[in-house]
Amino acid sequence: MTSPSGSTVSPNSAGASTAITALQNVLDAQHAAYFAYSMIGVRLTDATQVSRVRDLQAEHRATRDDLMAQLSSAGAAPVAAQPSYAPPEKLTDAIAAQRWALALEEACSAGYRFLLVAAATETGTVAAATETGTLRKQALTGLSGSAQTARYWRALLTPATPTVPFPGI
Fold first, then answer.
1. Which pTM was predicted?
2. pLDDT confidence of residue 10
3. Phi and psi dihedrals of 2, rounded to 5?
4. Are 131 and 139 in contact (CB under 8 A)?
């Protein structure tokens, strides 16, 4: 499976559970978003959007840090951030920056959707059932947040269609 950075994360690498792999994918998306929002903010001219980008970058940093701690406490080495992340197109204006922000949030949504599926497959013991509920809540919260942020960017780019039926697909 391809992650937001373009690297491939194998669902069974080093015996990792599906949930750990899913958390690693979400972390990879968070690394990319945290990095990219500093470049996106420079291209925006609207003060409200610039403020929103600063808040989003702080949120992605906090989520990234929480995921790294979660993975470490589960005995997994958190996936490292890439040295840099390239935008899908040259950032020459605010529209290109908004499109990249939308793509980043869609990648986060996709990561959380994978985590939701992974949570449903983690079964077996009472501890696993408790962990599954925690992962499911984490996935739903993350998916809702990234879908709402994607809606914000999509509304700026295509006001007539600011939402999609199934975020993260």
1. 0.85
2. 38
3. -95, 135
4. no
